Amino acid sequence: MELQARRQNRKESRPAMSEIEKTIPIEVLRYRPEQDTEPVLQTFQVPFTDDMSVLQGLQYIKDYLDGSLSFRWSCRMAICGSCGMMVNGKPSLSCKTFLRDYYPGGLRIEALAHFPIERDLVIVMDDFIEKLESIKPYIIPKTPRALSEGEYLQTPEERDVYEQFSSCINCMLCYAACPQYGLNSKFVGPGIMALLHRYNMDSRDGGTEQRMELVHSEDGVFNCTAVGYCSEVCPKHVDPANAVNINKTESAKDYFLRFVAPKGAAK
Amino acid sequence: MKPRAIGKRRPYVRPMAGWWRRNPFFVEYMIHEGTAFFVAAYALVLLVGVVRLAQGEAAWNGWLQALHSPVAIAFHLLVLVAMVYHSWTWFNIMPRTLPPIFVAGKRLSATAITSGGLAATAFASAVLLLVVWRLST
Ligand code: SF4
Ligand code: FES
Hints:
A: alpha+beta, Ubiquitin-like (UB roll), about 35% helix, B: mainly alpha, 4 helices, about 5% strand, binds iron/sulfur cluster
């Protein structure tokens, strides 16, 4: 009896979804490689409350309507960078986007643009990960130091120079916003350039020359035509377009300095 | 990079055709890049003027006359609108393209850079207009 009462109680404290009157149509681009030759749209009617994110809407679909729906997520608080998708055509973190803003019209959710679709809303991110590794995203000390010499010191001013670019959460929204990456996936792209710039600007780092090779290359910064949408959609205000464009100048400087200073002497 | 097909995997690559129509942001980008055409067209008109000047007084006067036609005036008005829009978008993107600028230890804000650029454009245009006005009257 007591158990039953407790059960009853629990039911009441969490509003059962059927009791919520507001329902929103969510269109999801499905792709199940074993049955679909190409992606198809499927609409779900999802009951929701004002505090529900788009991600929670998808979780409702997976829990109650269609368990086969695939999507990535983890933190639910805009810090892990897993839940990026196109919401009404705009690259968004689905945990930071709210269903109420699309009521009553509804919304369309698709996998992040410009990446191959693995399944439903899950993209193939191998290309991004390979690029991430290729830029040596770690501090390469100018001169190696023994442990006994203590830590590398840095002033707050020296840190300010790169701090903005270190806020990247690798969510890839900027890649989904970059038509140049969509047209030519060899382009290093915004987020990775921001990370490269973050290390090059670090006063403790001496790896700039190694990384600049990629900046100058065919796949480097000159693929950018300053569309600027990457910085617009970035949820962490990294401003990757700024990193890319500063490096156009850096690359041009390097090119012309070659004629006045022998290689190696030019910074 | 081509995704590897392992077992049941069959990654789907979406086409890019018509990409710029998919998002209002891209449509605006195409429009403001398109205004560069008007800038080039105007430069061409000026270039023709220089060539006519080299060909002698009659040719030069003919060119000046042509500029007074209603078609030429309508064209110039169109170019003016395109140029103003071009400058506006140019200075709006400017903060994204510059390395950080520090004034008295503080980073110059994007708004300051944009409004600085726009003010410089307005000032230069006004000075130019004044000089040309003085010379022609
Ligand atoms: S730069 Fe911004 S949008 Fe791009 S991956 Fe990093 S956090 Fe995401
Ligand atoms: S779930 Fe982690 S960023 Fe959205």
